[in-house]
Amino acid sequence: MSRLLVLGAGGHGKVLAEAAEASGRWDAIAMLDDRHSLLNGSLRWPVIGSIDDCSVFSSEWSDAIVAVGHSVTRLRWLEMVESLGFAIPVVVHPSAWVSPSAKIAGGTVIMANATVQADARLGRGCIVNTGASVDHDCRLGAGVHICPGVHLGGEVVIGDGSWLGIGCSVIHCRTIGCEVMVAAGATVIDDIEDGMTVAGVPAREIISRRNKS
């Protein structure tokens, strides 16, 4: 019997749980959240405990996935649940298209109407959100968040922990570094170095977190 625990019962958690439910892969779905006493009974899925209760449920629940937007937290919690013996699945909404040649690491979620094309490679704990597209031969590092309506051209490379805001676009063959933030609606036509925040059409640097402790 396949049973899925979703860590995080906020907005992203609800969307992820619905995608998992729609996929039909799991016999049961429940959630963990530190607000469980407040949330249990208010959602479609039971909120059965706090995040720290993971170890209590490891013998009863086969799979676990993390539903928080912050990439560092998401990756840290994925390591935690894996160390407790949970399997870390990939969740794909049935309306999404994922090429058979794409390779997707555990803990990644592909939301409704998203597209992942031929020979794309997605690292651990990525989010490809509603209606986003990742074209052929793209490479996404661990914890990358592609927000709703983002479009990546072919052969785009994105480093660990980067976040691309709603509706932005990246032309083909561009490289975006680690921990980059791309503002909503931006158009990226040049490579972006690690730690930069860019905005506009075309995208230009507005904040740099490089070389800051």
TrEMBL record:
<dbReference type="InterPro" id="IPR011004">
    <property type="entry name" value="Trimer_LpxA-like_sf"/>
</dbReference>
<dbReference type="InterPro" id="IPR020019">
    <property type="entry name" value="AcTrfase_PglD-like"/>
</dbReference>
<feature type="binding site">
    <location>
        <position position="145"/>
    </location>
    <ligand>
        <name>acetyl-CoA</name>
    </ligand>
</feature>
<comment type="similarity">
    <text>Belongs to the transferase hexapeptide repeat family.</text>
</comment>
<dbReference type="Pfam" id="PF17836">
    <property type="entry name" value="PglD_N"/>
</dbReference>
<feature type="binding site">
    <location>
        <position position="69"/>
    </location>
    <ligand>
        <name>substrate</name>
    </ligand>
</feature>
<dbReference type="GO" id="GO:0016740">
    <property type="term" value="F:transferase activity"/>
</dbReference>
<protein>
    <submittedName>
        <fullName>Acetyltransferase</fullName>
    </submittedName>
</protein>
<dbReference type="InterPro" id="IPR041561">
    <property type="entry name" value="PglD_N"/>
</dbReference>
<dbReference type="InterPro" id="IPR050179">
    <property type="entry name" value="Trans_hexapeptide_repeat"/>
</dbReference>
<feature type="binding site">
    <location>
        <position position="166"/>
    </location>
    <ligand>
        <name>acetyl-CoA</name>
    </ligand>
</feature>
<keyword id="KW-0808">Transferase</keyword>
<feature type="domain" description="PglD N-terminal">
    <location>
        <begin position="3"/>
        <end position="80"/>
    </location>
</feature>
<feature type="active site" description="Proton acceptor">
    <location>
        <position position="136"/>
    </location>
</feature>
<feature type="site" description="Increases basicity of active site His">
    <location>
        <position position="137"/>
    </location>
</feature>
